[in-house]
Design a protein that fits this description.
single chain; 234 residues; alpha/beta; ten-stranded mixed beta sheet; two-stranded antiparallel ribbon
Length: 234
């Protein structure tokens, strides 16, 4: 089963669409939204979404155990992307039913069937470390944003594979050609979390997923071809 972590910050205009795209998937055991003390109406929007859609919404601080399928955690301050992800992962790890942890941007919308594809890929690759799928831009003729990433050890430059190419024509790379999985749509296995540990919070925003992947040791990256999200923010 999957557990989902969504980090929210000034996400009032997009968080509802993101939640709509995952809440109905039976492969998802729990959804955690970690709010980094948004100055806008993000929290109120999540509450209104839950009232409209029907799933019971629990609200808690970062240390409280999860008691509902959908939980809004108040981080208390802006802890950055990695800090908020780590809060969500720490809570989800307590549920033994969850064996794969899906980190999803609040401005990303999962295509129908994406959760099922991720769950199936995780089951078919029990030794995986990190897993990703395709991210496409919203409103840009379905251009690819990323099919995973590569990192140059000589220059430190990171590359989003197939960025800007037509989603209908771009050929996804083999998993072994990837150095990292893009953080907007990324799955970590329970084994990965146990062996590698949490994200490095000193990055605050950007590059934390590259660092995470570089620490994975022998745990492989897996690509899931049927798992696609539309990234509204780009």
């Amino acid at each position: 089963m999957l557990g989902v972590v969504i980090v929210a910050y000034t996400s009032a205009d997009v968080i509802g669409d993101c939640l709509d795209s995952v809440v109905g998937a039976p492969e998802i055991a729990r959804i955690v939204v970690v709010d980094n003390r948004s100055p806008d109406a993000t929290v109120e929007t999540v509450r209104a979404w839950a009232g409209r859609m029907g799933p019971p919404l629990a609200e808690s601080d970062p240390a409280a155990p999860l008691e509902s399928r959908v939980t809004l955690i108040h981080a208390g301050l802006n802890r950055g992307f990695a800090g908020a992800v780590n809060i969500g992962l720490d809570r989800l790890k307590a549920d033994p039913e969850i064996d794969a942890f899906w980190i999803l941007n609040p401005d990303a919308v999962a295509r129908p069937g994406t959760a099922a594809a991720l769950a199936a890929c995780a089951a078919q690759n029990p030794g995986f470390g990190l897993m990703g799928g395709r991210i496409v831009y919203s409103g840009r003729r379905q251009a690819v944003q990323a099919d995973g990433g590569r990192y140059s050890r000589w220059t430190g430059v990171c590359e989003s594979v197939n960025q800007g190419l037509s989603a209908a024509e771009a050929v996804a790379p083999p998993a072994e050609a990837l150095d990292f999985v893009t953080g907007a749509h990324m799955v970590a296995s329970r084994r990965f979390l146990e062996e590698v540990g949490p994200m490095e919070e000193r990055y605050f925003l950007y590059y934390e997923e590259v660092d995470w992947a570089m620490r994975r040791g022998a745990l492989p990256i897996v690509r899931c071809d049927g798992a696609e999200v539309v990234h509204q923010g780009g």
